[in-house]
Design goal:
Layout: H1 11-41, H2 44-75, H3 84-115, H4 124-149
Helix pairs in contact: 1-2, 1-4, 2-3, 3-4
């Protein structure tokens, strides 16, 4: 088996991309846990916590991951590549942004409801936000698989 040596100029953009992706998935799991707690207990601080995690951690981590991905793709001249793993990564990233915005709106609504003092237990927004977060975690795990195994 041949070892592939990557030029040193690619190390930092790759580090930014991988670091952003790790922070994105970790904070998404944390938000999913907060949504689950808010849903099972009707806990108002948990609903506000989930929104804060989405707004303060997941969105910036997504931006870092996406910019790092574009940066490393430009360095490796892969922007117009037909490789399957590149397509999976860009597709998951683009659809992930849409789902992230939907999740932000849903958790923002439930955080506002929690701030107003009404019960958030059993709210449709919590269920939908949990489903969206679960889909995002699954999609990002598929993208991680594609980036590491490089199918096609």
């Amino acid at each position: 088996m041949l070892a592939i040596v990557r030029p040193d100029a690619w190390n930092f953009p790759l580090f930014v991309h991988i670091g952003g992706a790790m922070a994105l998935v970790a904070s998404l799991v944390l938000a999913l846990y907060g949504i689950r707690i808010a849903r099972t207990r009707g806990d108002q601080p948990a609903a506000q916590f989930a929104f804060r995690v989405l707004w303060r951690f997941i969105l910036p981590a997504f931006i870092v991951m996406r910019l790092g991905g574009q940066w490393i793709a430009a360095k490796e001249k892969l922007e117009n590549s037909d490789a399957t793993w590149i397509g999976i990564g860009f597709t998951v990233s683009d659809l992930g942004l849409l789902l992230l915005i939907i999740g932000l709106v849903l958790t923002g609504l439930m955080a506002r409801r929690a701030k107003a003092g009404t019960s958030v237990a059993g709210a449709g927004q919590l269920r939908a936000a949990g489903i969206v977060a679960g889909i995002l975690v699954t999609a990002y795990l598929v993208a991680i698989w594609a980036m590491t195994t490089k199918p096609g």
